[in-house]
Amino acid sequence: MDYLYYNAAAGADDDVEFWFELLKGHGIEPSRPALGDREAVAQLDENDRLLIVGGDGTINYLAEVCAKAGCTVGVLPGGTANDFARGLNIGVDLDAACAVLQEGRVSRVDLAFVNEQPFVNVAHVGIGAGISDSLEEGKKSFFGRFSYLAKLIETIQARKGFSAEIYAGEATESGRWLEIVVANGNSFGGGHPVLGADPCDGKLDVVGLRPRSVNALLYEWVRVHVMKRDPHPDIVVQLSHDAVEIKTSSQHSVSADGEDAGATPASFRVEHQALSILVPKLD
C-alpha cells in the first residue's frame, strides 16, 4: 500500500492536493488522507511505501521510524536544497521523482546518528551549523540553495575558526577549523559534493576545512571541483570510519540535515543499510 506524508513547512508552497494530483497523473494513488505524524508512520510495515514530500529535514524526522517499521521510502523533493535526493540521483524534478516511484529499484542506505539523533545526509560543526541556524526561513525558501553559498562567504569573512579534535578510528586530527562536515550522504548546501561519500558503504566521511582567506578557499574549490585535483591536505582534511568523535575547546552548535542537533562534544555512528529507499534503476 502507498501512503503520502505531507509536511506543509518543508519549503514547498503547494497544498496537499497538488501532490495527490501529481501522483495520480503518474498512475500512483496513495491512501487518503495523507499521513502527518510519526505515530501514523510507525504503523506501516515492509509491505508499505511511504512517499515523503519534503527535504532533508523531513526525511530526517521520519528516517528512524521508517527504518524500524520496515517500510520503503519514496522521495518527492519538496524542500529547499533537497540534498539527500540529489545525492541518490533522484534529483529535484518532480516528474523524474515520480518516475523513480514507478520504475525505480529499492536500495538499502545507511542511517547515521549524532549523539543518538538520526540523520540521513550530513551533519555540521562550525560555520555550516551556524548557517543553518542563522538563515531566516523566508530567505531560505526564496533563495533556496544559493542562500547557503551567500551566507557561507559572509560567514567565512567574519570568522577565524575554532579548536577541535577529530577522532575517526585510529586516525586523529586536531587544530583550528572553519567547518567540520560529517557526511552519510554525498551532497550538501544545494548540490555541493562531499568527495568520496557513499550513503550505502557503512562509513561516515569527515571533511574538515581549515581557516583560510575567502580567495584561498574559492581557489581550492575550483582546483578540486573544476580542475579535478585532490584536496590540499593543509586546507582540507578527509577521514572515514563508522564511528567519529568531535571534541571542541568550547561548546559549538551541531546541525544535522539542516536541523538543530545540540552541541559538541559530538559522537557519530552509522547503522549500515538500515533504511529502504527507492532510487533510479541502474542503466
From TrEMBL:
SMART domains: DAGKc. Residues 38-118 form the DAGKc domain. Keywords: Kinase, Transferase. Coiled coil: none annotated. The keyword Kinase applies. The lineage of its organism: Bacteria, Pseudomonadati, Pseudomonadota, Gammaproteobacteria, Cellvibrionales. This is YegS/Rv2252/BmrU family lipid kinase. GO terms for molecular function: kinase activity. PANTHER family: METHYLGLYOXAL SYNTHASE. Gene3D superfamilies: 2.60.200.40, Probable inorganic polyphosphate/atp-NAD kinase, domain 1. InterPro entries: ATP-NAD_kinase_N, Diacylglycerol/lipid_kinase, Diacylglycerol_kinase_cat_dom, Methylgl_synth, NAD/diacylglycerol_kinase_sf, YegS/DAGK_C. It holds the Pfam family DAGK_cat.
